[in-house]
């Protein structure tokens, strides 16, 4: 049996290790979180019997992602299928596996959205494979990233329209609670709420705990742990969901080491706890907001639609033949779900609404480099606008949810970042709510207040936070990486290390007289 990765032969042991890139910092830990050993022969035997025919596996191609081992398995009779084994970084493996199966099966049963068929799975590791796994159909078609650059604009516009029509099927289904989507047969050990009623009285699905790894406070556990502070769902109301996020952050803060509080914008643990307690009092009031509750209907959504997760027909670039990678997707409030797909994100200078994107007024006087950048942003803005307009026409509910007041969306996002990023972004959000309370439509009085002295002190801290955030973005964009320092396998890692060192030296020189080299090192995301 041949085993390859990116067209190069690899050993069996290399199937278990992470080979889809390197990391500029904390590499040993990152590799350890993505290591997963399993019984390959047992997995091959299961795959051989799966699908349309029984035929032994003769070749494996490793298609590794950030959170799973994904293997393209080729049968002797020419058949192909995908086997997935979750890494520990994905979150509790039971929830990750069972919810992915439940989501795929639900979409296939109740929508016409094309997703792969599941042939075999086990959400437990007490099996012959020695790991949780899913064996599924190989996606039909060609990944969009192989076609997008060659597509005519009219083909792109038609694909965008087709995508919004598929998404409209998701927003048309309102679930009774927030959480993960499971087959009832897999959720007997979990707290869950059965589905049924209007859809199907014999519906084999239920809403259970969220599989999102942000709720995986105990990274070693496969099933939810008994932590009275942590409620990972299902949740019956918007306020319950928001309060659970805040309590999850309180639990994390209680277990953090002192050196995790080193940045000024993080604030002290006491400050973090105080702001989260304020946030809980605010979350309790959201269920009485008439418009917000309408746009908070529990909705399933694909929140990671990049061009690698969309497949199109070989003879029709606009026809979507498969959407893949539903791992860890949840049923959540629609206004937190609806968004531009990754590859259609608007550029920074983008105007929402029925406004046609245009080139800058001074375009003709720009130098060549700036013209290229302006044309790139204009092209991206046109695609983003096409998605926005098509969503308005095909999926009005999602369009309205995308246009919920930004501060409500920020409230949930910033609350969920408190233990990691700190108090300043959350405080900025809470101050905005306090100052604009009368215009936000929440019945009653604001449950907290900030003095002018508090606000003035915060402005200085927020300026420092923005400077820190700007450095993070500068480093990530310049090095073509992410917050973890991931470097794609096709890039020269040693060169990226050298570039990181050069960028850091340049920034130290730029900050001379303002910050010491030690202070710069503290805010640089990838210190040596």
From TrEMBL:
Determine if Mitochondrion is one of this entry's keywords. Answer: yes
Q: Which UniProt keywords apply?
A: Mitochondrion, Transit peptide
Q: Where is the Aminoglycoside phosphotransferase domain?
A: 60-326
Where found in the cell?
Answer: Mitochondrion
For the keyword Mitochondrion, the answer is: yes
The entry's cellular-component GO terms read:
mitochondrion
Question: Which Pfam families does its entry note?
Answer: APH
Q: Member of which family? A: Belongs to the AIM9 family.
Q: Which PANTHER family does UniProt cross-reference here?
A: ALTERED INHERITANCE OF MITOCHONDRIA PROTEIN 9, MITOCHONDRIAL (PTHR36091:SF1)
Name it.
Altered inheritance of mitochondria protein 9, mitochondrial
């Amino acid at each position: 049996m041949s085993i390859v990765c990116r067209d190069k032969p690899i050993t069996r042991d290399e199937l278990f290790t992470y080979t889809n890139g390197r990391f500029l910092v904390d590499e040993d830990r990152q590799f350890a979180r993505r290591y997963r050993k399993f019984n390959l022969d047992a997995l091959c035997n299961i795959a051989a019997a799966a699908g349309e025919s029984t035929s032994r596996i003769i070749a494996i191609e490793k298609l590794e992602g950030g959170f799973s081992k994904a293997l393209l398995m080729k049968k002797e009779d020419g058949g192909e299928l995908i086997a997935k084994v979750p890494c520990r970084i994905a979150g509790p493996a039971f929830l990750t596996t069972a919810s992915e199966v439940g989501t795929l099966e639900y979409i296939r049963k109740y929508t016409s959205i094309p997703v792969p068929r599941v042939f075999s799975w086990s959400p437990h590791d007490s099996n012959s494979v020695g790991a949780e796994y899913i064996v599924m159909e190989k996606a039909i078609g060609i990944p969009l990233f192989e076609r997008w650059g060659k597509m005519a604009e009219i083909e792109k516009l038609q694909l965008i329209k087709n995508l919004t029509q598929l998404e409209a099927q998701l927003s048309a289904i309102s679930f009774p609670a927030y959480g993960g989507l499971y087959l009832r047969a897999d959720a007997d050990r979990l707290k869950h709420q059965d589905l049924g009623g209007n859809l199907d009285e014999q519906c084999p699905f239920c809403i259970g705990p969220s599989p999102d790894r942000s709720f995986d406070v105990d990274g070693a556990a496969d099933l939810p742990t008994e932590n009275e502070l942590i409620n990972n769902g299902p949740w019956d109301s918007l306020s319950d969901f928001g309060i659970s996020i805040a309590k999850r952050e309180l639990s994390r803060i209680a277990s953090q080491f002192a050196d995790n509080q080193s940045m000024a914008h993080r604030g002290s643990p006491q400050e973090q706890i105080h702001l989260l307690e304020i946030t809980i009092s605010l979350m309790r009031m959201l269920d009485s907001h008439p418009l917000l509750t309408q746009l908070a209907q529990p909705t399933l959504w694909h929140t990671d639609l990049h061009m690698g997760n969309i497949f199109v027909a070989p003879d029709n670039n606009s026809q979507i033949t498969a959407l893949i990678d539903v791992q860890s997707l949840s049923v959540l409030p629609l206004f937190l779900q609806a968004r531009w797909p990754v590859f259609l994100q608007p550029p920074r200078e983008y105007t929402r609404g029925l406004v046609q994107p245009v080139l800058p007024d001074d375009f003709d006087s720009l130098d060549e480099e700036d013209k290229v950048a302006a044309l790139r942003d204009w092209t991206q803005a046109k695609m983003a606008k096409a998605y926005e307009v098509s969503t308005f026409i095909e999926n009005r509910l999602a369009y309205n949810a995308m246009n919920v007041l930004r501060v409500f969306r920020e409230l949930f996002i910033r609350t969920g970042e408190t233990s990691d990023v700190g108090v300043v972004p959350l405080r900025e959000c809470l101050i905005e709510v306090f100052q604009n309370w009368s215009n936000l439509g929440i019945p009653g009085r604001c449950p907290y207040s900030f003095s002018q002295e508090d606000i003035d002190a915060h402005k200085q801290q927020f300026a420092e936070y923005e400077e820190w955030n700007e450095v993070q973005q500068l480093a990530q964009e310049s090095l073509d990486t992410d917050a973890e320092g991931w470097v794609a396998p096709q890039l020269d890692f040693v060169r990226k290390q050298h570039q990181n060192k050069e960028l850091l030296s340049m920034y130290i020189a730029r900050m001379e007289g303002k910050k010491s080299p030690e202070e710069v090192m503290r805010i640089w995301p990838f210190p040596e």
